[in-house]
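In this section we turn from sequence analysis to structure. A common task in structural bioinformatics is to predict how a protein folds when a small molecule is present, because the ligand can shape the pocket around it. The inputs are simple: the amino acid sequence and a SMILES string for the ligand, here glutathione. Study the lines below before reading on.
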Amino acid sequence: MSLVFRQLFDSTSSTYTYLLGDAGEAVLIDPVFEHMRRGAALLRELGLRLLCTLDTHVHADHVTGAWLLKQRCDSQIALAAAAGAEGVDRPLHPGDRVAFGGRWLEVRATPGHTDGCLSFVLDDRRMAFTGDALLIRGCGRTDFQQGSPQRLFRSVRGQILTLPPDCLLYPAHDYRGLTVTSVAEESRYNPRLGGEVDEADFTGYMNNLGLPHPKLIDIAVPANVRCGRPAHEGELPPEPDWAPLTYTFGGLWEVEPRALEELVGAVQVVDVREAAEFTDALGHIGGGRLVPLSELQARIGEIDRNLPVVTVCRAGARSAQAAVLLGKAGRGDVANLAGGMLRWRAEGLPVVDGRN
Ligand SMILES: N[C@@H](CCC(=O)N[C@@H](CS)C(=O)NCC(=O)O)C(=O)O
Ligand SMILES: [Fe+2]
């Protein structure tokens, strides 16, 4: 039987998640919190049991799905011992082997982007998963989380570009849509680390990148040092079966605009904006009922008990609050429209009373 390999993408953070499977067993590299259901469904469809999740490092731009998948699939959480995170079942050290079926990944330390960065190399050295140490024609930044250009340079040159030239390299991110590269390609064409570039050139380059910090850094890093376990952790809520919902790190169920469009008639849309916004340029979703957030508590009796509720607002924040409020009032069948009317409109979905 041959290796099962899938590359999955999170468009919010441009993160790749990799599924590797053999003989009924699988590992997931860099799972994303919000995609737990996608991962679990794919594993089920491929007939694979998830042995463990492997994070290449403590991410700063998204929350890992490690804890959530452990609740769902009983998988072990594996992360570099050097990351010092809480809740790790399997602290990884350089040279360790992580087995699945008859195959295994070798753990290599590739610090520099963060202290605890690891790369995972497949047993036959035809594939390696480099996290943010080496990106396609790029590399992870070195300006936060104990980053060090000198260490990164030595990691990439010593641990990654020494692999066979035809070894395929799969990064944790790509911001332009490229999916894979190789040792030969990066050795030659990586503008930061390839060719004749030396450590001093690289350091000069990295110390002048001038990138803004990731938008989610203040949420993601504290969450990831707990392996993605939410601070408010209760038990996991039961899986809703009335829509393809996503469980967010904030503890809410969300529905994507296109999924909601398919549900029209089967759910009640509760728009919690102010009255004037209901008919402003953005318009509203056909059949939606206006109950401003400020009045929701008092008017809760108006909401049909027999139909699941989707809350809506301009950008998805007030409606998240409305969903929490309805949840506290005992409703277990509530979801928030992800991104609100702004996303709904951006996806070209129909509205009533809006302007184009
Ligand atoms: N705009 C992104 C920031 C992405 C970012 O900083 N990514 C890190 C990896 S966690 C990086 O090293 N990027 C390298 C680069 O963009 O060249 C966000 O807000 O999340
Ligand atoms: Fe990163």
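Residues 13, 59-61, 132, 138, 140-141, 173, 175, 211, 214-215 surround glutathione (ligand 1) (CB under 6 Å). As an exercise, try to locate the residues that line the glutathione site and compare them with your own expectations.
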